[in-house]
Write a structure and sequence with these properties.
Elements: E1 3-14, E2 17-28, E3 32-36, H1 43-50, E4 58-63, E5 66-67, H2 74-79, E6 82-85, H3 97-107, H4 113-126, H5 142-155, E7 160-164, H6 172-187, E8 191-195, H7 199-205, E9 208-213, E10 216-221, H8 224-229, H9 234-241
Parallel strand pairs: 3-8, 3-9, 6-7, 7-8
Antiparallel strand pairs: 1-2, 1-4, 4-5, 9-10
The structure holds adenosine-5'-diphosphate (ADP) and magnesium ion.
Length: about 240
Amino acid sequence: MKELLKVKHLHKKFGENVVLNDIDLVVNKGEVVVVIGPSGCGKSTFLRCLNGLEKVQGGVVTVDGLPVEPDKKSIIKLRQKIGMVFQSYELFPHLSVIDNLILAPTKVQKRNKEEVIREAIELLEKVNLVEKKDFFARQLSGGQKQRVAIVRALLMHPDILLFDEVTAALDPEMVHEVLQTMLNLAKSGSTMIIVTHEMNFARAIADRILFFDKGEIVEQTDDVKAFFEKPKTKRAQRFLSTFS
Ligand code: ADP
Ligand code: MG
């Protein structure tokens, strides 16, 4: 099994506020890791640290052997290894769907435009959005925008994809289509780390659950079914009980 992402003794503070306290994690290729935990426990900061978007106070993160260091030139290389989808899709509203999609692969990765367009259309077909390819991003619904944002991340061919509460800002009827897209990715063998408050989805998609609280991994298991039936720690029990 190939170890794709490694986190060792990660420490992160904002001022005096310790947000991540000595986090260790290894994610294997093809694994789907779901991160759950109360609001403010450090989930988003954790993903941002994995992706080189935050300065850290200690520890090492490597992706496929490449150290994650926010200030270094390696960040461009890193962007090709690790992709992220956020709660707010961050598409350019005044650009068409297809132009949003091809921007980074052609400008940053310097790939052939025709080839990228071809691949973008294939991916849009998979998420049932090919008929929207020439629409402005601002003309799409939230669920459609979020699926475009996922396609945009996939087009960079990352080794690992990070998702931070990607359905949190969507109307309930649009949540399903985005979760279904992620389930399909999981089936096709993508390596993903997903932060979500959708517990049924977490249960369905996770190979492993990480339960975070106050900046620490309090419980971690690949017996996902057992975790949702009866978590071992009191803190996870209390957290899950707020969903039922
Ligand atoms: P979660 O995603 O689990 O809700 P976050 O990672 O967003 O949690 O936040 C963890 C803690 O870090 C919170 O106490 C939050 O206030 C703090 N925090 C997050 N981002 C910043 C920032 N840019 N500056 C200062 N504090 C921050
Ligand atoms: Mg968050």
